[in-house]
Amino acid sequence: MSSGGLLEIDPLELKFPFELKKQISCSLQLTNKSDDNVAFKVKTTSPKKYCVRPNAGIVLPRSTCDVIVTMQSQREAPPDMQCKDKFLVQSVIIDQTATTTDITTEMFAKETGNVVDEVKLQVTYVSPPQPPSPVPEGSEEGSSPRPSVSENGNLNSSELLTATRAYAENIQQEKSSENLAIISRLTEEKNTAIQQNNKLRQELIPSLVCSLPVIMVMDLF
């Protein structure tokens, strides 16, 4: 914060959480602790890169004005994340009856003999805030999740025994299912064979009975 001039300015260093292809804003607070109306104007060494709202205005006695500085989206990051851009806040005492429309560039020209207070601001790029780490599923807030393996990376003995039993039960169930399927298939084949055998007997017996008298007559001759 600057003090001793016409306006107290906070902060003196504009910090932008730099992200590619994204507009980033930060605020600047101008405080007038005097009994005079103070006009201000904000300048920058890179006017195409930044948007300042308002870039000029009047701070009434014992009041504060907030200025929003927006950096346009950038396609490339600067080398080593270093920024050489600078801002300059100029301020002058004006008449009590003056309004924002009365502010002109000539007011801030020292060449005309005006008393102009100037404060330079630095620009710094900082890393954007990182999102919080997700809470592991099944764990409660404030407690660490229960690991499924021991610290050395091996399964605990009880867990290994449980897994072995489950695997053996699965194999036994699979074998039982296969055996039942084989027994069922053999039973069906047996019943089919019995039915076919009975059908053949029923077809052969009438044939034998019909052919028996013919054989007896031939023997008589």
From TrEMBL:
Chief location: membrane
Topological relation to the membrane, as annotated: Single-pass type IV membrane protein
Biased composition (Low complexity): 141-151
GO cellular component: endoplasmic reticulum membrane; plasma membrane
PROSITE patterns: MSP
Subcellular location as annotated: Membrane
Keywords assigned: Membrane, Transmembrane, Transmembrane helix
Stretches for region Disordered: 125-155
Presence of keyword Transmembrane: yes
Family: Belongs to the VAMP-associated protein (VAP) (TC 9.B.17) family.
Protein name, UniProt field: MSP domain containing protein
Organism: Musa troglodytarum (fe'i banana)
